[in-house]
Amino acid sequence: MTRLSGRDSHDWHLLNLPGVARFSLLLCCVTFLGNPSCLVTSTTEFAEPVLSPPFVDANTALATPQGGAGVPITRLLRVDADTREVTLSTDVRSDDAGRPLWSRAFINYKLGDRPFDEIFGGEVIPPGTFDEVRHIGASFDPGRLNDGCYQVSLVITHEFDAKELIPIRQDDTAILVWWMIKGDPALISLAQCPGVPPSSTLDAGIEGGS
Amino acid sequence: MRTCPLAFFLTVCLLSCSVDQMPDHSPTTRVVNTCKIDSDCRASGRQGMCGSGMCVASSGRLTQGILEIVPPASAFFGAGDSFLIPIDDISHGRWNEDLALPRYANVEGILTTTPSVLGDPPSESCSQAFDTTTQSLRVHVDFSRSDASQGLPGYTVAANAERVEGGTGFRFAASVPSGKYDVYATVIGDCEADFPPLFAPKKTLDPGNVMMELHVGALSTLTGTVTPPVSSTGEQISLTGWTVSLVEPEQGKVISTMRKLNDSNPTNFEIRYQPLGETPPILQIVPPKDLIAPTITWDLSVLDLDGDGQVQPSISALDLATVQVNASVVTHEVEAVAGATVRLRSTALMGASAGLNARYETSATTDAEGMFSLSLLPGTYQVVVTPPDRTGLSISQASWTIGRSPAVQSGRAIEVATMYAVEGTIVDPIANRPIENISVIARPSTMSTGSYAERIFGTAPLIARAASTLTGAGGGFVLGVDPGVVDITAQPSDISRFPWLVVGRAKVPSEPLGTLTISFPIPWAGTLRDPNGNPVQQARLRVYALLGREADGPADHPVLPGVLPIAETRTDKHGAFTLLLPSEVEGI
Question: CB-based contacts of A24: which residues, under 8 Å, 6+ apart?
Fold first, then answer.
């Protein structure tokens, strides 16, 4: 190699380029890599999650005394002095918009001057969507009640009032109702059931979505 | 040489670090009522609900109560007075129920009578207390809250009638919290021989201006002759100085003129009274203060069977000879108990025939050797000894029969027992955690007082003294309590958001209470305002449960009637309050 022939071609390195050339080359690379993202002209639209009231499947609703068979809402629930727990349960669907779904059991819900006579805490299930069928329930102890006829309600909602303990929004609430007799049925007339005129027939039922 | 101080300092530091073990002063874990969801309140199997961040009860057992409100002495309205408000439906929580202090009952009244009632002519002192124009009397009037007989706090206001300008006669005025009051009026001055006190029970005084016009018309007259007792020598004992009067049977208030027997007329009496209606009064003969003799009572309807207003009470069979009794009070180890109070109350006196109710009461205090000396009438006595406080000794009682002879009787001793231990452990309802460092107080049960007739004819109930302690490690406590019936309360701090634990009507001595679980609270929150709508700061609110109704206990174990304090709090600077009522009360 002569001095005139310059450097050996095998020793070439990017740093050998002049500064301006190196900058130009870097700019080309950035432009090349960045161009595709600039070509996206629109994004996918995701709908805001909408809270739906809980919809219960009344056909799946059961009141199950401890150690006994489940009673649907179309039948009278009977318990005796030895019954220590009754579980109210149902299948439910709802769009929860990220909020948990609460359930509580009420005795004589909104039948008198008070919002309820007794209340019992139930399950709180994690948020879900409407296409999921989930199960929810609440248990209560009838041992605290005197012999007589009672209205028993499974109330499901996304938010209970922290002080009054009842649902904040009626339009976000599902209620399943059973009639329950505690004690000797021969001694307790259905006419003694609260909130029902003596001449009426008793129909358990459902409010809210179904 | 400069390194010497440094070396010395390091040496000291190393030595100070040579403590191989620090004393175990682990901080007390504060147990607080808190939750996020309902299942947090069911950890121990108890049914609770999560509301406002704390576990609350679905409902409570107690249904009715009385709320006592006492504004502070600095309050603009109601300073230091006690207002009682009946409350219904305390079985369920109430979060936004404000309270308003009721207005005072501003009572203005007059007591009138006809001139003939005061005698003809009336005595000079009675004339001065009588306004002939309006026929009103200058009286002293006591307003006493009727509810006190249930065991609720007593409250009495007194007023004197004064002559009012404008010729409206003698009038009295008083402002009292509204409610039911027993009104008792006595003439001011030395007129009690001519005009009897007026007793008007259970007068309802509503808020606002109340005009009270009391009138005494014709009086009934009772005349009689007392047959005095006879001494051992067969001579009649003089009754000079004894006083004859009629009392009403509920509270024992005198309702007649008082007749003091004297030398010139030692056995005959004539008293005047206003009839009580269907309730017969009690005739009472009271000995002079320093005479050792019993108070004797008769049911007037029995004594005056024909109702002609003439009676012949006889105490001739009563033995008034006294016996000197010297006795001592000792512990189980036969150590003298100095400073003990000894009360004796006769249950039967010798010579008192059937149907004659004679009662003699006296008391003494033991000296340094535990000795006391009394003069007593022969008979049977209930003896109650109250040792000084903080000696660990309990109130004890005995029954003595004192014979007629010998005249001096010595050698009796009353043994006082040590305090009875009331033991228990207090745990919280969420996770059965022991609660340490909370006050546990035993107070004598506040029960309804019986009628005066029941009180004077029966034995006196033992009333335990109040005792208190703090729960220790593990939530345990031991209280030293006198025998009797007590209400025990454990009072967690406001920060814990637990209600009081209440054991009502606990009998002492008894088995250990065992583990006591505080109940979930029934909350009651609101703001206390005066009648003008201003918040009342720092007022004390105390809730009493009313006991004694059929619903409060099974038929074979009736609850002793009366009241039971179950919750207490104070309003804050905005007048806001949160009462946490216990959902369960042990023992009832």
Answer: none
Superfamily of B323-416 according to CATH: Immunoglobulins (2.60.40.10)
Q: What distance in Å separates the CA atoms of residue B119 and residue B219, rounded to the nearest whole number?
A: 11
**Overall domain count for chain A:** 1
Which residue from B230, B231, B258 is spatially nearest to B242, judged by alpha carbons?
Answer: B258
Hey, what amino acid is at B357?
N
Evaluate if residue B419 carries a pLDDT over 90: yes
- The beta-carbon neighbor of A121 closest among B50, B52, B59 is B50
Residue A132 sits in which domain range? 55-207
Pairing type for strands A205-207 and B49-51 reads unpaired
* Cα B310 to Cα B303: distance, rounded to the nearest angstrom: 9
Task: Tell me whether residues B38 and A122 touch, CB distance under 8 A.
Answer: yes
Q: Minimal Cα–Cα distance from A123 to chain B, Å? A: 7
Predicted complex ipTM: 0.71
HSE toward the beta carbon, residue A82, CA cutoff 13 A: 3
Q: Can you tell me the distance from the alpha carbon of B442 to that of B486, in angstroms, rounded to the nearest whole number? A: 6
Rg (CA), chain B: 31
To the nearest whole Å, the CA of B520 is away from the closest chain A CA by 13
The separation between the first and the last C-alpha atoms of chain B, rounded to the nearest angstrom, is 82
In a domain, A23, yes or no: no
Mean pLDDT of chain A: 84
Q: Which of A120-124, A188-192, B411-415 is least confident?
A: A188-192
- Judging contacts by C-beta atoms under 8 Å, the chain A residues touching residue B39 are 121, 123-124
B336 pLDDT exceeds 50? yes
Sequence letter at residue B460: A
Please enumerate residues of B whose Cβ is less than 8 A from a Cβ of A.
Answer: 37-39, 41-42, 47-53, 56, 58-59, 89, 92-93, 95-96, 523, 525
Residue B22: pLDDT band by 50, 70, 90 thresholds?
low
Give the domain ranges of chain B: 65-101+420-582, 104-206, 220-311, 323-416
Contact (CB, 8 A) for B472 and B436: yes
**B65-101+420-582 CATH pick, 3.30.565.10, 3.40.47.10, 2.60.40.1120, 3.30.70.1130:** 2.60.40.1120
B163 or A1: which carries more pLDDT confidence? B163
CA distance A210 to A58: 7
